[in-house]
């Protein structure tokens, strides 16, 4: 286990940016587009994703603030940060980079980049609603040459990465005894939301396949033969 507090702060910051970016729509449907009504399940998942985005990023920013404050313990600002954000009176090894932190942050950052690749490849065809554009076309390049729903795979792994980071016993949540506060309630609620969101994404992948098959027919059938995997090459 390595103690590199500023590197840990930087990786936490990149993870926060990656998580926020991954859950931010790159484009929106227009009045000319056809939307699939996803029902109460999709509506709730969308609303909760907005809340979780804010909560997760706020938690990661708190970790950065505490790490930096511990590097300058004599300043008034650092004292105020620790009083407000840390309930532990013990010396904090929060600057240590545990294997869980390295694995989790690496997943979040790398999969956010894959998500960005998906956004770039689809362009304005990528929306968070199941949308058929008036000039829709079937994209078979970039990450879509390997699986049919790479953006969902990437987001699921981003979510898993954030959960792994939350298990880090050298992180802000554990070291500052935040599990007994409202933060702990958010962590538990987030775990439930993650299961809900993953089920939603798998379901949406199936719906998207059905819609695209109906619209593009033979072109989609050829694509599904060339790319038989929905989420993970060679597995699923």
TrEMBL record:
UniProt-listed Enzyme Commission number(s): 2.1.1.100
Main location: endoplasmic reticulum
Entry keyword set: Endoplasmic reticulum, Membrane, Methyltransferase, S-adenosyl-L-methionine, Transferase, Transmembrane, Transmembrane helix
GO molecular function: protein C-terminal S-isoprenylcysteine carboxyl O-methyltransferase activity
Keyword Transferase listed: yes
Entry membrane topology: Multi-pass membrane protein
InterPro entries linked: ICMT_MeTrfase
Residues annotated as transmembrane: 43-72, 92-114, 146-165, 185-202
Cell compartments where the protein resides: Endoplasmic reticulum membrane; Membrane
Catalytic activity: [protein]-C-terminal S-[(2E,6E)-farnesyl]-L-cysteine + S-adenosyl-L-methionine = [protein]-C-terminal S-[(2E,6E)-farnesyl]-L-cysteine methyl ester + S-adenosyl-L-homocysteine
One Pfam family hit: ICMT
GO biological process: methylation
Keyword Chloroplast: no
Recorded superkingdom: Eukaryota
GO cellular component: endoplasmic reticulum membrane
Entry's family note: Belongs to the class VI-like SAM-binding methyltransferase superfamily. Isoprenylcysteine carboxyl methyltransferase family.
Name the record gives this protein: Protein-S-isoprenylcysteine O-methyltransferase
Organism: Hypsizygus marmoreus (White beech mushroom)
